[in-house]
Amino acid sequence: MYYTPLSERAKKMKNNKRHKKTRKRGVCVIIVAAIIGVLCIAGFARSKYLEERFAKNTIIEGADCSYLEVPQAAEKVAEALSSKSIILKFGEKEYQFYGKDFGLEFTSFEELEKILAEQKNAEIDETGSNYALESLTANEDMVRKCLSELDELKPENMVKPKDAFINVSDDGTLEIEGEVLGNEIDFDEAVVMCLENLSFGKTNIDFNLIANIPMVVSTDEMLNENVKAVNHILSTIINFELTDGTIITLDKQTMKDWVCVDEDGIYYVEGSNIRNFVEELNQKVQETKGSLVFTPSDYDGQVLIPVTTKTELSIDVEAEIMQIREDIAEAGTHTRSPIYEKDIDVEDYPSYVEIDITRQKVWMYYEGECIVDGVDCVTGNAGNHDTPTGLYYLKSKSRNAVLRGRNDDGSRYASPVAFWMPFNGGIGMHDASWRHGVFGGEIYKGNGSHGCVNMNYEDAKTIYEHIEKGMPIIVYASDKDT
Questions:
Q1: Cα–Cα dist 248/237, whole Å
Q2: Which DSSP symbol is given to 179?
Q3: For 97-119, what is each residue's pLDDT tens digit?
């Protein structure tokens, strides 16, 4: 038997192990390569599989289209649209329908393909997203049928809206009549709205948005300002005190008829009515007879002077109109005398002439100073030519006049005077040379004038030189006191 040396055997064994290890490594490489190949094939196959399918978690119109091809996704989307809950709202009431009730569907596969392409280009990997389709449509006939069955869209159940408006109450003041909200909805407009909302994928459709509503409500600022302004005017009360104690009142009972409304529904107080009122008031003033309390010169007591306002008093129309406007702007209650062209309170005048028939005396006050102090005079013959008492104002004055008239026996007279100062028609003050300086006493009771106030030349001259047109002349009888 032949034995190989140990060293050779060891070397041979070493070589055998090397060969076995080499073979094992080769097998591993082959296995790894095979696995890689399988994985590549699997990856390619999966990539090819996903290339035609939607990504994971892809939700289209509520349908889960994960890993579905377009035709399969289309079926699921159609089912989802058919079962989609649609809520219609009228006022506070809601109705539930489903997509199938309105024939809700999508009309374009291209939109699904577009979504798929966007996912591929964006390299979406199992992330997906929610998508709403733009190609939704609803069947108009089906929409009309569903809506026509709702009570809120039946004509007999609709209440038309009504704007808030200004109403004139019985006492003339303005008040706001509130709006009526109503529930009127145009049926055709409701159909259009429903179709549009469904095409946008809306599931809650609020028809309150197209309900007809009032254009003007009770809180409208212009409406309230208008009522406030007119009622402010109507709240004014003006009491006019006339000379005889009569009170004429201007308040809403009169002014309510002054309120007008223009074509835009704006109420206002017609200003021309103020003028009409003042002119009517002036007429009453001129027809009213009153009395003026007067304290005579050198006399212990007071006298009542009749004020024949028909000839003596007249309202300053323009000034009174302006004052009424101011009173109205201020509102409230005002009690006052009308604004006269001539103030009847002679005590406010620094200049006036005073004639006492009883004492047959004449005084003149000029700028607060007595310049004619109780001089004698002769007034109208008592009984048939009495000089009328009252408050008068100088009408005019002239020099070297001739007074003409008839005597009681019918004969004519012509009396030349140096100073002529009329204040009551043909009655006035003048000098009377034919009396030869005899005045005063009781001459007037039997040899008085035809109504004029006679006085001597110097006294008449003094008065003439200081008196002016419009100066008050007070004629009274002191034995008729208060």
A1: 11
A2: P
A3: 999 999 999 988 888 999 898 88
